[in-house]
């Protein structure tokens, strides 16, 4: 498949250009920004300094007045996932093509075990990912517990390059786990140096809330939001945080959608606990009013879990992101088309849960956070790329524009505009939850593995060119954990000898 132009259609595919000079842009890293040139050869950044001179065979891109930044890393996607009786519509090629057009050059997807079998799940996802057009990594869900699962977690970490496991506290009857399993999982994650991730909603209470709505005759998409209110997200977030505190291991809360969950994270972080909070674009940008839309196709496209919340939660999450209470932005790209969403036209419980965002994330976060003045350009790089690379232990290979880093780079023009439209997006889905949104800041060029894959509004991507990125255990969030354990043991004091009780 080498050289095949799957999207975009011209003949060179950018594959001839293995040497690129980006001239005169403002190079932005999470720690620093400076006007400099960037020289790339064979997929790697060779030099970052001013006035680099090159031979005539090098492709030169003028970035004067533009930002040159690390490509986005999306920590949370579901491509080709079997879920709620169907399969997400974007596979590892179409989802990644969309990502590249929006300035994201790596994503981390979730392997779902097959009947609890981790190895079978891993093999299946490695197969699905063979059509990849950009670099990717995997988290893995844990859906049941026994000795085999525990042993397979060791294999995943020590042999297969996975360093994070997700526990679903919701989706009763399918993916949901018990507190007992969560506790075992947290202990195992700690011993392996793997990050424990939680989908934090009280699944039992959600089931009760759903029953309540159906009994009240509320069967439309609004029933989705009404059946799983913020208090259930706050409760599960607090529970997971306390259990992680008890075990003394880092916890990563995925898709933080409410003030209730965010405040639990803020409280724990203030007390010194290692908790990471990931808002997703839908939670930062949208409100739940769409779920009350009278047209089912429109309303159902906003059904995801935890639900998109009332206006006000979005702004609180933005503030939490800009002040460091929350650390990095994902999408939870989990896309179903309107035919799939219509499975739930009579009963909101059957609407497949999930929204798009892999293509829109960089533009919407830039516009909402940087363009609005809530966030610096360097912090934009941190929350869309660098922090993810650091947490999952692949920095500075990813998440930086430094000599020796992978050449995954975007050029963003702060003076150009973007517009989101189903008609022009690259996802396979026939709807878009951000339809019609416009803003400032446009990704004009995406470079992936040292090749230009997005330029002049055209994609030049090659299925099979994406690489699996292994993520080693014991990332920086584990530093010092053993010292806290030692302090805990010391605080227990010497064992007490007691005489036998007498009757
Ligand atoms: N979030 C959602 O609605 N769908 C994807 C599965 C998950 O992350 O919970
Ligand atoms: Zn989830
Ligand atoms: Zn998800």
UniProtKB/TrEMBL annotation:
GO terms for molecular function: dihydropyrimidinase activity; metal ion binding. Its cofactor is Zn(2+). It comes from Canna indica. PANTHER family: COLLAPSIN RESPONSE MEDIATOR PROTEIN, HYDRANTOINASE/DIHYDROPYRIMIDINASE FAMILY MEMBER. Carbamylation allows a single lysine to coordinate two divalent metal cations. Belongs to the metallo-dependent hydrolases superfamily. Hydantoinase/dihydropyrimidinase family. Residues 67-453 form the Amidohydrolase-related domain. It catalyses: 5,6-dihydrouracil + H2O = 3-(carbamoylamino)propanoate + H(+). CDD domains: D-HYD. SUPFAM superfamilies: Composite domain of metallo-dependent hydrolases, Metallo-dependent hydrolases. Keywords: Hydrolase, Metal-binding, Signal, Zinc. Its EC number is 3.5.2.2. This is dihydropyrimidinase. The keyword Zinc applies. One of its GO terms (cellular component) is cytosol. The modification N6-carboxylysine is found at residue 166. It is an enzyme of class 3 (hydrolase). Homotetramer. GO terms for biological process: pyrimidine nucleobase catabolic process.
């Amino acid at each position: 498949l080498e050289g095949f132009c799957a999207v975009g259609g011209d003949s060179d595919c950018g594959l001839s250009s293995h040497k690129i000079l980006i001239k005169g842009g403002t190079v932005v890293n999470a720690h620093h920004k400076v006007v400099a040139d960037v020289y790339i050869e064979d997929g790697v950044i060779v030099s970052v300094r001013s006035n680099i001179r090159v031979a005539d065979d090098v492709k030169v891109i003028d970035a004067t007045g533009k930002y040159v930044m690390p490509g986005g890393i999306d920590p949370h996607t579901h491509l080709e996932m079997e879920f709620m009786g169907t399969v997400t519509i974007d596979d590892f090629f179409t989802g990644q093509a969309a990502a590249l057009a929006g300035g994201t050059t790596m994503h981390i997807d979730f392997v779902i075990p097959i009947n609890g079998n981790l190895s079978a799940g891993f093999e299946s996802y490695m197969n699905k990912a063979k059509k990849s057009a950009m670099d990717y990594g995997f988290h893995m869900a844990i859906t049941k517990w026994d000795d085999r699962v525990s042993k397979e977690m060791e294999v995943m970490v020590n042999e297969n390059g996975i360093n994070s496991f997700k526990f679903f506290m919701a989706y009763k009857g399918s993916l949901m786990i018990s507190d007992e399993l969560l506790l075992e999982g947290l202990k195992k994650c700690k011993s392996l140096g793997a990050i424990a991730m939680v989908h934090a909603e009280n699944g039992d209470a959600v089931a009760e809330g759903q029953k309540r709505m159906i009994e009240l005759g509320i069967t439309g998409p609004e029933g989705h939001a009404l059946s799983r209110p913020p208090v259930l997200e706050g409760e599960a977030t607090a529970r997971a945080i306390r259990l992680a505190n008890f075990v003394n291991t880092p916890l990563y809360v995925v898709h933080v959608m409410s003030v209730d969950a965010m405040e639990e994270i803020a409280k724990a972080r203030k007390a010194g606990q290692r908790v990471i909070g990931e808002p997703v674009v839908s939670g930062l940008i949208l409100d739940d009013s769409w779920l009350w839309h009278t047209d089912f196709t429109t309303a159902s496209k906003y059904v995801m879990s935890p639900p998109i919340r009332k206006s006000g939660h979005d702004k609180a999450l933005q503030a939490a992101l800009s002040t460091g209470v929350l650390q990095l932005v994902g999408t939870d790209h989990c896309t179903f088309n309107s035919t799939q969403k219509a499975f739930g036209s009579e009963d909101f419980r059957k609407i497949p849960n999930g929204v798009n965002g892999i293509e829109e994330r960089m533009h919407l976060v830039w516009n909402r956070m940087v363009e609005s003045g809530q966030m610096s350009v360097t912090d934009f790089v941190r929350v869309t790329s660098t922090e993810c690379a650091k947490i999952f232990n692949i920095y500075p290979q990813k998440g930086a524009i430094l000599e020796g880093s992978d050449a995954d780079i975007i050029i963003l023009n702060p003076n150009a505009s973007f517009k989101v439209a189903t008609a022009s997006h690259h996802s396979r889905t026939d709807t878009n939850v951000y339809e019609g949104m416009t803003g400032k800041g446009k990704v004009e060029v995406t470079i992936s593995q040292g090749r230009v894959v997005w330029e002049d509004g055209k994609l030049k991507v090659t299925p099979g060119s994406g690489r699996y990125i292994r993520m080693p255990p014991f990332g920086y969030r584990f530093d010092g954990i053993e010292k806290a354990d030692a302090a805990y043991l010391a605080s227990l004091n010497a064992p007490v000898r007691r005489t036998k009780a007498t009757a």
